Amino acid sequence: MESRRQPDDARLLKALPSVDLLLHTDAAGVMAAEFGRGPVTRAAREVIDSLRTSVMEGDISEGDRESLLETAKVALADEMRASRRRSLKRVINAAGVIVHTNLGRSPLSKAAVEAIAEASGYCNLEYDLETGNRGRRGVRAEEMLCELTGAEEGLIVNNCAAAAVLVLTSLCEGGDAVISRGELVEIGGDFRVPDVMKRSGAGLVEVGTTNRTKISDYEKAIGENTRLLLKVHPSNYRIIGFTSAPSVSELSALARDRGLVLYEDAGSGALIDLRRFGLDDEPVIAESISAGADVVTFSGDKLLGSVQSGLIVGRGDVIRRIRSHPLYRAFRGSKIVYAALEATFESFLKGTMFEDVPTLRMLAASTEELASRTESAASELRERLGAREGLSIDIVEGTSVVGGGSAPAATRGNPVLALGDREISARELEERLRAHDPPVIARIEDDRLLIDLRTVPQEEEEVLKNAVCGAFRLG
Ligand SMILES: *Cc1c(COP(=O)(O)O)cnc(C)c1O
């Protein structure tokens, strides 16, 4: 590096604006008012450091000397804009994946949002308004959960992974759990069943094979140290063909006979039967309970369509053992969680979930409805972009994906918009839509940009169309 340095560099280095000088510019002042002095100061240090590196590496020449401060101001503004992009913001999901884990899974219902707003100040989270004494958190949400699932008791924690750790730790620490080899799965990024069991102190006893496990396999594996039979829904993974696994009722009979607990991790878990929407093998929680599962866990933000949470339901004595474990204190939900869940449960209890709860509304949207929305969006876009040569706006048969750990094959066929252009690649269009405010997330297939309206609420369609028009006009 030394050898590459030229005499000019020393003079250029001296001409570098100081962090202080940069911070005293009007532009930095405006940014400090918006982002705070601390973050802007940190960014200014980074900007000047990186300018210094550029000078030392010979990337800046004597001719740029006068504009060093200007360069620093532009870099500072870029950095602050980038930091804004990193913070949590609304996006439009035009990718057609209903429960999109990277996009925050289930959008909340209006009622859930209002309930969160109501609870966001002081609220009676652990206060009994009748007696003025301390109350227990989540009582009403747990009652509703029991009504919806037929379980004796329920418990709510922060996510289904926490629920699984809590159940296994409180019921099986130091003992063994028997599980089929076909269910030792990884779900989403980081939820790996064998690792969760190890962390929970439960010994893993594998039975059967990847594709077939019989009830007699479980029977033979039960030993002195066995406490629990575990059934895990493979969620986003399927073995098809020559397969079999015992039902919840067979496992329950065996567990009862041997004095063991049957725990089912249902994952997505449907509160109601969603088979008519192609979700053929999502366990319906009430069915698992009536088939004899002692404890069932599932997520609140997958097919339930509510806030991130882990729901635990089951037999009274089993749930009380779980509740009294110290880990429950570490995993319990916040007032925001209870508020959103109560509102969502209410929609299910009233029977209005297909109108109120966005995840279910999108799942149930009919092909006719989506066809007509897609047709009218296409004709409006053709009209607005008509003058553009080499542009194609077609309607093709696409598939929306349920996502969020439900069956990989769980898809809903529907027409989607396919945009192509002779000059702008699908990749470029996708990037431009992603850079829009609010960002629009779309997917690419065969060098065409696909826009699936199933996951775009009616009220966001206008913004989406404007974003698409904008993306083409840039080119
Ligand atoms: C999704 C899933 C989990 C993890 O749930 P989170 O709510 O994301 O923690 C655990 N088990 C199964 C079977 C799942 O499908």
How far apart are the termini? 41 Å
Q: What is the number of helices?
A: 20
Give the neighbour order of strands across the main sheet.
3-11-10-9-8-4-7
Instruction: Compute the CA-based radius of gyration.
Output: 28 Å
Helix content: 40-55%
Shape, principal axes of CA atoms:
globular
**Global structural class:** alpha/beta
Would you identify the regions where 5 or more consecutive residues have pLDDT less than 50?
none
Beta strand %: 15-25%
User: Cofactors and ligands present?
Assistant: pyridoxal-5'-phosphate
Described by strand count, sense and barrel closure, the largest sheet is: 7 strands, mixed
Counted beta strands: 16
Average pLDDT rating: 93
Entry summary:
With 475 residues, this protein is α/β, with parallel strands linked by helices. It has helices spanning 7-15, 19-23, 26-35, 37-56, 68-86, 110-119, 139-149, 160-172, 193-199, 215-221, 248-258, 285-290, 316-323, 326-331, 335-350, 353-356, 358-364, 367-385, 426-435, 461-473; strands at 92-93, 97-99, 153-157, 176-180, 186-187, 191-192, 203-207, 226-232, 261-267, 295-299, 310-314, 391-403, 411-421, 440-441, 443-445, 448-451.
